Amino acid sequence: MQKVNGNKTQSGETPLSLLTLIRSRYLPYWPLFIVAVAAALAGAFLYLRYATPLYKVSGVLLVQEASNGLGASDMLQSLDLMSGSKTIMENEIEILKSRTLTKAVIRNLNLYGEVIEKGKIRDVVLYKDSPLKFTFLEPESIEMAATGIWPFTCNEAAKQVVIDGKKYPIGDTVQTRWGKLLIQSGARHMDTSASYTLHVMTEKQWIQLLLATMKIMPAAKAGSVVDLEYTDAAPERGEDIVNELIRVYNKAAVDDKNRTSANTMNFVEERLRIVSAELGQAETQVEHFKTAQGIVDIGEQSKLFLASVQENDRKISEANMQLSVLDAIEKYVNNQDPNGNIVPGTIGLTDAVLLELVTKLSETALQLERLRKTTGENSPLLASLTRQMERLKPAIRENIGSLRANLEAGLTRLQAENSRNMGIIRSVPGKEKALLEVSRQQVIKNNIYTFLLEKREETALAYAAAVSDSRIVDAAESAAYPFSPQKPLVLGISVLGAIALVVGFVSLKDMMNREVMFRADIEKVTTAPIAAEIMHHDGKDPLVMHSNSRTAVAEQFRALRTSLSYIGLNGDRKTLLITSSISGEGKSFISVNLAMSLSLAGKKVALLEFDLRKPMISKMLDMRIDPGISNYLVGKASLQDILKKIGDNGLLYLVPAGIMPPNPSELILNGQLEHLLNELKERFDYIIIDSAPVGLVTDARLIAPFCDATLYVVRHQRTPKHYLKLVEELYQNRELGKLNIVFNGIKRQGVAGYGYGSGYGDINGYGYTEVSKKPGLFKRSTK
Question: How far apart are CA 680 and CA 136, in angstroms?
Answer without folding.
Answer: 108
